[in-house]
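Example record

One chain of 473 residues, shown exactly as stored in the release files.
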Amino acid sequence: MANGSPITALCQSPAVDVVGIGFASGECILYDIRSDERVMRVFMEGAGVKAIAFRTGSSSILVERKACSPSHTDGHPTLATASATGHIALWDLNNQGRLMHIIKGAHSSSISAVQWIPGQPVMVTSGEDNSLKQWLFESPDEPPRLLKYRAGHHAPPHLIRYYGEDGKQILTASRDRSLRYTSVVRDSRSFELSQGSLEQKATSLAIPVSHLKLPAITALAYSSTRSKDWEDVLTAHTGETFARTWSVREKKLGKWSMGGAEKAKGVSAKGKGVDVSLGAIKAVCVSACGNFGFIGTTKGVVQAYNMQSGLKRRTYVVGKDQTVTGIAADALNRVLVASTLSGSIHFFDFHTTAKLGQLDIPSTAVSIDLQRDSGLLAIICDDLTVRIADIETRKVVRELKGFGARVLDVSFSYDSRWLSVAALDSTIRTFDIPTGRLIDAFKTPSVATSITWSPTGDFLASAHVDSVGVFLW
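Predicted structure tokens for this chain:
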């Protein structure tokens, strides 16, 4: 049929004994299995056919062959074929398969299914990019337009955090280079934060949209206190030397980039200030008041920026070439805490940037999480231990052990009594902080890469290495 090309799609047409057959070569044929002859042939270039769907009309080629009665028709006779590259081609069955329209980039990856809604000019498609879309056909002479869609991450999220104080929404970051706002109450409220008109740029450059997106997010912080006034989310990205702001209210990337290069005190041969990179951004934090954003770099520097204007306000010097792994600010803007790969926890005066003290721990501090209401600081260490420090006394008050593998994430409960810990041994453990004892543990089918407690204490959310969804416990 197609020079030995494998069959990749089959679809029964509304006509008796006629089937649509799609091949890996991009060819699609209509075949009459009773008479053993080919009725029609169309061809999609670039990739194999993954799905086929029919919408027949009273004058279609199927009716002309007396294989389909006019009572089974519901609109202009159309054949839809979907490819492994995410394109959809629409063919006119009235005119021996003439190409009517092609929807390029209908999905960002392979399309798994296409279906027409009977009696309506609507086509539904689903793809491996974890999206479901409805396409409306207003006229046979015009290409269809996107009517509705539901989508999620098409790569497993690796960083999730509850957003706001009501516990109804979660910010999720994934390796698909997107940041999404996910509602746990109603899916129609979920959306992806826009990174600009990337689809138009991708079309003009003939490249996938994913190539134009920002690198994957490695750190995320927010404060919803001033979310109605200016950007409220701050993110760090893989290998980038500056952090970016986002606005959840406006559903898009913000105006400011924080970090990058700055003028050093040295002077070049041409008499100009020397641009010195601060290194890659490894940690971010937003103050409780929502006015300040902090970035920590691989060069041992923490810088404070104004979230409204994007201007730099302060610099906290941790130490030369000490990679900052975590930043936290208390609820009253009195103390700033920074952790490093060398295992030291640094405490600074929030306003004067003076160093107040230092806590040395016998292992690398991978990351930190501060419960602002209680002043307890959870420190994830490389020796399979989670240490809890008090930022007032600047001492370790609890050591939580017993993990079978490296700790990936921690999260405090809203009342500061519990600390949940996700580890690489596929187990989520919950400790009672006052007693320092393990009170609950459960094993998950796959490794949980990130966890977050609801601000209301009703759910624990988790993201896993092999799932594009967010689990609620």
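Notes: The domain at 157-472 is CATH 2.130.10.10 (Methylamine Dehydrogenase; Chain H).
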